[in-house]
Structure formats: C-alpha cells, structure tokens
Amino acid sequence: MHATIRWIRADLRTRPGQAVLSVSVVAGVVTALILATTMLAGAMDPWKSVFARSHGAHVWIHARPGTNLSSLSDMSGVTGVSGPFQTAVATAVHEGQRAPLELRAMGSELPEVGRPVLAKGRWLDPARPDGVVLERTLARTLRAGVGDSLSVRGLDGRRYDLPVAGIADASDQGPYPSVTPGIAWVLPGVMNSIEPKTASTELLVGLKLSDPSASSFFVQHVVTVLGGDHVDRVSTWQQARASMETDSRLLGLLMGMFGVVALIAAALAIGNATGGRILSLLQDIALLKALGFTPAQIRRMLLLEQTCLGIAGVVAGSVLGSVLTDSSLSQRLFGSVTGVAAAPLSFGRLALIAIATLLAVVVATLLPAWRGSRVSPTSTVTAEPPSGRLSRFARVALLVRLPPALVLGARDAFTRRMRAAITVGGLAIPMVMVTIALGCWSTLDNFEDHPEQIGLAGALVAHPVGLIPYEASAVIAADKDVTAVYPEVQMDALLPGQTRTIQARALGTSKRPYPFPVQEGRMYAKPGEAVAGQGLLDLLQVHVGDRVRLTIGGAPVIVHIVGRTIEPSLSGEVLSFGMDTLDQAVRTTPSPSYRIVLRHGASVETARKRLLSESQDRLDIQAAQNPAQRLFVVRVVIFGLVIVLALICVANLLTAASVGLRDHMRDIVVLRAMGLTPRQVTTTLVSGTSVLALIAVIAGIGGGLAMSTRLIDLQGRTSGVGAGIGRAPSVLELVVAAVVALALAALMAFMLARKATNIDVREVSRF
Amino acid sequence: MSPAEKPAPDAAMIRTKDLVKVHHSDGTDVHAIRGIDLLVHPGEFVAVMGPSGSGKSTVLHLLAGLVPATSGEIWLRGSRLSDLTEAERAVLRRRHIGVVFQFFNLISNMSVADNVELPALLAGANPKQARERREYLLEELGLSDRADASPARLSGGQQQRVALARALANEPSLLLADEPTGNLDSTNTRDVVRLLEQVHDQGQTILLVTHDARVASAADRVISLFDGMIVDDADVRPPSDNKNAIGSILDL
Q1: Contacts with A152 (C-beta within 8 Å, 6 or more apart), sequence order
Q2: I need a surface site. Which of A300, A348, B195, B207 has the fewest CB within 10 A?
Q3: Do A295 and B99 make contact, defined as CB atoms within 8 angstroms?
C-alpha cells in the first residue's frame, strides 16, 4: 500500500496538469447534472408541492347557480369538500394590461380542503373588506404586487378599484395566461357588488377523493347526479397537473437529454484521458511489474488514482452546483419559467448524481487499467510505437500529391484504432447534442419569425368593450398595418363520456378560414367540419377523418375532423371550426373577439397602441402569447450546456492531441533528422488530430440532423402541440459549429505541437 | 542469503531444463532460445556473452519470470516458475530478485529517492526503514545530493547507478543485470563493475548479460551463447582466485 500511495503521489506531483484536467471534467459534469436535475425536478412537479400544501381537491366542478350541491358530500369516495364558492367573471386592468378574471368569493377563514397557498401579503380580512388576493401567475402577468390597486370591471362595465392584499398559489388550475381566466379571491360582499345578478354567477365546488386515479369515472358520476345541464365546466387534478407541466416539459426534456449526453461524453472523455495517461505510463508500468508489482496491484493503483481524482471532481462539482442552484440568479431564472421556486436538491438526489458520476469514472478507468495491468514487463526494453503501414487511403493521398506532412499526420491518426474510435466518439456525441440544441434554437427562432406556422398568424386579439361587432371589425380593418381580421368565439365543449371540457373555438368562416397551419388532412371548408390539435386527437383517441359528438353551449354538435393543426395552447386540446358551424349549432352566438393579422414586419406593440387609440379604448387588445417567449429560458439553458459540452470536447481533444504527441516523440526527432521543417512537423501533428475531429464533426452533425427534427416533433407530439414544429438548424449555424469545433481541435493540437517541435533532441533520444 | 546457509546442490539458485523460447512476430516463428540447461549456485557471478540476437536478453527475461518460456522449466530458489501465477512471480521478484536493464531503468515520474525506496515499500517495509536503506545506498553510490532529482536530469552513468541501488534495495539474493554498462563510457563502466564486484563479495548471486569482455572479466564464470544455445561455459578465474562465497567473506 505504501508503494502504491508513493507512486500515486509522485504521479500527481509530476503531472498536475493532467490531474487538474480530470478533476475539472468530472466537476463540470457534476455541476451540469445538478443544475439539470434541480430544474427538472422543479419543472416536472410544480403541481405536486402546491397540491400538497393546499390540501388540494381532486375534482373541481363549475355548476350553474341554484344547483343543489349538498348531495355531493354524501357520495361515496368523497373524503372532503371545498366550497361551494360563488364565482363570477370580470376583467382586471393594471398598467394597461387586461386579464379575464374568475372572482371567487371566499371567507376570511381559509377552507380546510383546496385552500389557496398564500405566497405574499395577507389573506382576505374583514377589516379591509375590498381587498383582493391574486393567483401568482396572474399577478405576474398583470405586474401587480401587494399594495397595488387593481381596477376590476364587472360584466356591466362598472369599475372597482381593489387593493391587492396578497398573492397565492392555486393547485386546481394551470398558469395564466396559458389557462384563462385568471383567479382572484374576494370576500362575498365584494362579489355581490361587482356581480349583483346571481344568474350570472356560478358555483364552484372541489371534491377530495379517496381514489384520485378514478377521478374521470367520478366526474361522469357527478354529471349524472347533478344533470348535464347543471354542470358548466369540470376539471380534474390530472388536467391541472398537465397544464402546469406544459410550460417546462420541453425544458425538462432538453435538460435530461443534456445531462445523459454530458455523462456519456464525460465517461468517454474520462476514458480517453485515463487511457491516454496509462498509455503514457506504459514504460513505467512495465518497469513497476519488473520490480514486482502484481497485475492486480497495478489495476488497483490506477483505479485508486482515478477514483481519488473523481472524488475530488465530484466534491468540487457538488459545491459548485449547490452554490449555483442556491444563487438568487438561478432562482429568478427558474422562477420566471415555472412560477414556483425550485427546491434545492434533496440529499438523496445529490448522492445519486455523485455516485453515478463516480461509477462512470470507475467504469471509464476499468478498461485502460486492465490493459495497463496486462503490459508485458519486458516492454520496457522492447518498447516500440505501434507500427502502421501506409493505408490505402494514405497511398491514394500521396498519389494525388497531397503534402506528405498531411498524409503522415492522417496516417498517424489511425495507428491506435481503439483510441481513434474513443476520440471520435467523445467528440461526435457532444456534436450530436450541439446540433440538436441548434435545432431547438432554430425551432424557437421559427416560432418568433413565423408565428403563422404555429397557428399564431393573428398577432393581436381584440375584445370589443362597448363596441358592436360590426363597428369593431370596421375599426380594426381600417388600420394601415392590419391585413386581415377574423372573428373568434371560444367556448367550453363538454365531451360526453369523456367527462372533461375542452376548448371549442370558432375562428374565421368556412369561406374565409383563419390561416391555421394544417399538418395533416385539410382545412375545414364547410359547416360541420373542424380541425383539431394533436392533444385533442390523443384525448379522444380519434384520427383525422373521424366524426366526434360534443356539447357546445348546451347544444349537441357533431363535427367532422378534417385536419390536424399545430396548436400551441392548452396542450393542443383545442377544436377549431368556422363561425358558420357555431351559428348552425347554437341559437345565440356570443359576441366575438377578433384575431388580427398584421402586415409582415409591422411592430405588434405599435399596432396595439394605435388600435387602442383608434378605437378610443373601446377595444381590449392583447398580443397573442407566443410559446417562444416563455421558452426563452431554453435558450439560456442551451447556451450554458453547449459551453459545458464544449469544455468536455476540449478535454477530450487535449488528451487525443497529447497522446498523439507522446506516440511520436521519437518520430519527431527522426522526421527532423530526415529534413522535415519544424512547420512540416507541426502540420503532421495537427493534421493527425484534425482528421479525427473532422470525422467526429461530420458524424456528429449528421447524427444530430437525423435526430433533431424528429426529436422536437416527438416532443411536440407528446406535449399535444403536434408534430411539424421541428426545424433543422440553418446551414450557416452548422458551418459555424463545425468550424469552431475544428478550429478548437487544430488549436489544441497546434499548441502541443509547437511545444513538441521545440523539444531537445537529446532528451527524447535518452528515453 | 548468507553464505553460512550454503544450500545443497538441489537448492541451486537457478536451474533450467531444456529451456526454449519462440517469439512470434509477423506470422513467423523466431527461435530465440533453443534448449538451454543451466545451473547457477548461490554466490556465483555469471556473465552471459554472445553476439546480438544470440538470446542473451531473452534468457535474462525468462529467468526473471518476466516472460513465459515456450517449453522447458526454470527453478528459482527451488520454486518452479511455471507453477507460479503472474502475481506470485511478481512477489518472488520483489522479494528475491533485483533487475537492472540497459535502458529505461527508472520510473520517470518518481524522484531518485522514490525510485530507490519503492522496492522496499513494495516488499512491506515501513517508510522509515525504506528511507534509511535508500540513504545508505545512495551514500554508497555517491548520489546523496541527487536524491530529489528527477531521473530525466541524471546522466546515463548516474541513472545506471541509481538503477543498481534500486535493484539492491531489498538485498535480493539474485541480481539480474541486462547490459548494465551498455551505454556508458569507460569511467562509468568501471564504476558500475566495481559496484557489482562489491555486491558479489557480499555474497549475492549475479547473472550479468554483456557483450563487453572487460565487464565479463569481473565474473567467475562466462557462458557464451550463440543462436539460442550455450556454446561455451567456462570458469575464468584462476583457481586460487575462484573463491566461493565463503572465501569472499573471509577476504573481508
């Protein structure tokens, strides 16, 4: 043991650079994994923690006023009831932002079940009877804080200024504005003054179930008990959970993939580094064996050394990762995506990451250590570099008169095939990931540059406030930047037997349909035809071409789904058809809002302000929510992780270049003796590494291209948005990525080669 | 091993029987050793000579258990090498055999002091004992001031002397040296030979591979190899001078 430790100490002392490299690679990977897991854990389960803290109800039912709900608490399987609470619709205005509201009347005492989780400020207090508590995502969108005065308008248009008393989380609904309306809690007195007509209110009741998984069946039962015409809207905890996830699922997927790829790439980098290190130690290892080290001792020694370095890296990475995830910056960054603070990783998760990384280190060391232990003890005296004959490739290269230095270098790259393969793999895998990341990036770019391709052709949505529809469309169409206006009515549709409501949207007319991006089938062209998002097709388990029956505004409607569109909102659970279909189905069509398509290149914000003044504030105009905005943090993440991958690549390249160099120490002397100029010697060494890098870059980009669009579409499909959103990275981006990678490789090799060409001939010939 | 425990003939230091070694390279068989029978008694100083390619180094590697024989047997201090596992051969080496090669004798990432202490530590000595032994050996070889140097900073002669110190660190009963003076000038060669003679005088068995007749003249016995076979085996010391180990002790 003394001997082993003595050797490890001496080795670490004489090659501190390599040791630091190994430690930093491991530390980088651990940091990346901790960041990824923290965000993933928070992003995957924002619902879970809120639900637990709110003693959440599993099923929420919006019933018509006057419905007798007392029978619900007696139903078997119900373990707790929240409410009923009276609710009313209203509109909030704050700093020019408007938001549709669902006012919920609640007492000053929080309910036992389904209680809002107060995040800031105080709960409703009879001492301040006009106070309002806002749901957190709603408050964020309105930019309203505790103490601000919120202007609320009822259906009759009267305005009330309510002070914001607190901000709370709710577990029954996804984040605003993906899910509307936003939630605001008021005391019953405020509710009565804003909405005096009971007929315009609804009753909300939440039920806690003994068997949460049976919520769908239970809802069906409730609808039967209460009668279908008494139930307006039903939601389950699964829906709430899913709608909270949609925000960050792409992020989670990306982070997870990056984590795994980083681990694989790091294992290869560690393997490469260890392999290279052991290769450089072959003579010493042979001598150690001649001195009486047993093969097992050699293996243990190499494993022990790498494991120690690995532990140092894991500790450094854990500290760095914990500091980063605890920092206020990462909390802000994270909170802005999910709306929920990310909890620091549990000790168990941290330990799991540490153990997984350490295992990767050990596995990556096993093979080189085993090979090291098999070195013949006499290789000390018979050591010769592996001889490679000129390959056919090299002979052809010489025939076409490529510079000899280039050919020599290219040949050298493959003299150690196993190592060449590891080097190529270690570079190609991160390149695949970089290509996929660039694909995500250009998909996001495409969301922003061509919103019409994801169903957001109408950049603005206008709700008339005190304008009759004809006037409204005339005012909008008169604007110079507006190219088209489409009337829109959004209604909840109840799916019989499905026990859920989905959004039914009449937008455009059969003669003049809204420019939906139809990916499969065709656009609706006559009354009774509709297009749907992937989420809805999956929910109903139907395909394009099927007919579905649903209840819209109390009336049964049968629609023929003729196409699938890209649908970025509501997990794709949206059915769209022409206004004429709605007119035929329901007797009184609600007054429409308008989707406004602007001239290409027109500023959305300028147009919004101009339209506001042109309509004399009788239009409420909102910019359509582009998913690219809330996915902005994905770009930050992509950027950060590409840097981590680049670092791993650099570590890999350094090892590859230095191993190549060590192999050729003696060759260099011979080459110089043969009359190669220092520049030619450098070229030989640089081209050796560059050839491997070139192969890796081509393989990586090819693999990445093959996967990226497919992966993004798969993600689109599973999230309900639908396949067809994926975009390949632009040629320019790929060329830049390839050139940067190759330049990096050449630079690493060049730096080492420069050192090599200056080495003292005597020093080399002695060893 | 002290000369007082002079073993019986069957307790020979080295005994080989019909030793054959065939190298395989590039698809052809090269017969490096073609049947060697050798007997070396404890305390003998044997020089193995022969032209390049006669199999000198191969014999030494076989005897040290560094490479396996193709056929035939080797007994070292009574144990048959083919019965031992690789690990057991390694343990045998670390306890009883010191090896010096012509090149690449020192572990490049360890200092001179570490190189010399390593065998002792490997054999289970505690760091203090190892350091004392190292200090003594380097003192003897006039290298005390280079203890912390890296091997790369030493001259060829210094490297060989450190290698010798390292080989002697565990007081091995058998010293195997492969051309220890092969790349040294005459002054350095003389120093190394003098050292070997000293060691031999203390009773250690030495088997030395060399092509230098002056070096071989220090030995009691010269074996000539040619084409993998022993062609001559001769005592070279005058009878009065040809002392066995007991004689050496008396001389001291």
Answers
A1: A90, A91, A92, A93, A101, A103, A132, A159, A160, A161, A162, A184, A194
A2: A348
A3: no
Scanning B132-171 for CB atoms below 8 A from A yields: 150, 152, 156, 166
For residues A461 and A569, give the distance between their C-alpha atoms in angstroms, rounded to a whole number: 14
Nearest to B109 among A10, A289, A297 (CB): A10
* Residue A548 burial class via C-beta count within 10 angstroms: exposed 0-12, middle 13-18, buried 19 and up: buried
- Give the contacts of A549 (CB within 8 A, at least 6 positions apart): A496, A556, A557, A558
Tokens of A462: 């206008």
**Max CA distance (Å), chain A:** 101
Strand ranges across the sheet with B229-235: B97-100, B174-178, B205-209, B45-49, B221-226, B229-235
Contact (CB, 8 A) for A84 and A205: yes
- Look at B119 and A290 and tell me if their CB atoms are within 8 Å: no
**pLDDT, tens digit (0-9, with 9 covering 90-100), for A360-399:** 888 888 888 888 888 777 765 443 444 444 555 556 665 6
Give the B window 187-226 contacts with A, CB below 8 Å. none
Q: Collect all residues of chain B within an 8 Å Cβ-Cβ radius of residue A380.
A: 101, 103-104
Q: b vs e for A451-466, b when ≥16 Cβ sit within 10 Å of the residue's Cβ?
A: bbbbbbbbbbbbbbee
Indicate yes or no: CB of B99 within 8 angstroms of CB of A3.
no
Q: What is the Cα–Cα distance from A177 to A138, expressed in whole angstroms?
A: 7
Q: Which two tokens stand for residue A391?
A: 């390959």
What is residue B35's three-state secondary structure? strand
What whole-number distance in Å separates Cα of residue A486 and Cα of residue A484?
Answer: 7
- Number of Cβ within 10 Å of residue B10's Cβ equals 8
Between the alpha carbon of residue A149 and those of residues A124, A432, A648, B48, the distances in Å are 15, 51, 52, 104
Interface list for chain A against chain B, based on CB atoms closer than 8 Å: 2-3, 6-7, 10-11, 13-15, 281, 283-284, 286-297, 376-378, 380-381, 383, 763, 766-767
Q: Rounded to whole angstroms, how far apart are CA atoms A290 and A287?
A: 5
Q: Cα distance from B252 to chain A (closest Cα, Å)? A: 30
For chain B, give the longest Cα–Cα distance: 55
Tokens standing for B122?
């490997």
Vertex A648 angle, CA A647 and A650, to 5°: 65
Q: What does the pLDDT look like over A478-500, one tens digit per residue?
A: 888 888 888 888 888 887 665 67
A390 vs A405: CA distance, rounded Å: 13
What is the rounded distance in angstroms from the CA atom of residue A162 to the CA atom of residue A133?
A: 10
Residue owning tokens 């389904």: A114
| SS3 assignment, position B18 | strand
User: What is d(CA A135, CA A169) in angstroms, rounded to the nearest whole number?
Assistant: 6
Backbone angles phi, psi at A84, to 5 degrees: -75, 145
Place A531 in a pLDDT band, splitting at 50, 70 and 90: very high
Eight-state DSSP code of residue B219: S
Residue in A11, A376, A380 nearest the CB of B104: A380
Residue A671 sits at φ, ψ, to 5 deg, of -60, -40
N-to-C CA span, chain A: 28
Q: Please state the length of chain B.
A: 252
pLDDT computed for residue A674 by the predictor: 64
The Cα of A291 is separated from the nearest Cα of chain B by a number of Å equal to 6
The set of residues, in sequence order, having a beta carbon less than 8 Å from that of A103 and lying 6+ positions away, is A87, A88, A89, A90, A152, A184, A185, A186, A190, A191, A194, A195
Give the ipTM: 0.78
Cα distances (angstroms) measured from residue B191 to each of A331, A615, B161, B184? 72, 108, 8, 10
Q: Is the pTM of the predicted complex or chain greater than 0.80?
A: no
**Count of Cβ atoms closer than 10 Å to residue A732 Cβ:** 8
